[in-house]
User: Which sequence fits this backbone?
């Protein structure tokens, strides 16, 4: 089994990548392989609504999406992590999710049955909207979303103004989520 983590932040040492790794460490402890894709290194165009995917069963836009989508298909689990920008997920992550939803839908619900959940990071507010955006994507694709001891929302400041390591509740939540996701995956896939 494998879990793919997708970090939506444009920053190199981002808080959302830190929190994603907190969850993935627990998943690895349970014996499940993990991989992280940082979208800051990728060129991802927005969906153009061309509907080529209806016939081709893949996205015909030539950028890094194809590689990411292939890894999404091969993984049994997908964890998304993003900073919150004006109560929303980042544009690169939204582009990946929109294009993946189109291709997966027209390809015969290709992501159905996978397991995953979102992680949001904000300084103060806006997390519920961003969390909802990603949850709706999981539900649209027929994926199982395991819970935790709280929502997967974390707090961190701008450029390290508030260290993510000090968010004890966020870290505890993500560790519990990682354990729960591992248990759910083992029940489904073993």
Assistant:
């Amino acid at each position: 089994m494998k879990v793919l983590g997708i970090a939506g932040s444009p920053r190199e040492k981002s808080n959302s990548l830190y929190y994603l790794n907190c969850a993935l460490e627990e998943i690895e402890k349970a014996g499940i392989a993990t991989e992280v894709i940082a979208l800051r290194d990728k060129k991802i165009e927005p969906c153009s609504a061309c509907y080529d995917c209806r016939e081709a069963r893949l996205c015909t836009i030539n950028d890094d999406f194809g590689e990411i989508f292939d890894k999404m298909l091969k993984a049994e689990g997908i964890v998304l992590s993003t900073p919150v920008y004006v109560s929303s997920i980042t544009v690169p992550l939204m582009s990946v999710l929109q294009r993946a939803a189109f291709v997966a839908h027209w390809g015969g619900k290709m992501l159905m049955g996978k397991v995953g959940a979102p992680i949001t990071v904000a300084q103060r507010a806006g997390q519920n909207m961003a969390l909802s955006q990603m949850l709706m994507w999981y539900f649209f694709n027929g994926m199982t979303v395991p819970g935790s001891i709280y929502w997967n929302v974390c707090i961190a400041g701008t450029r390290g103004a508030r260290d993510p390591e000090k968010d004890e509740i966020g870290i505890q939540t993500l560790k519990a989520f990682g354990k729960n996701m591992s248990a759910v995956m083992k029940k489904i896939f073993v």
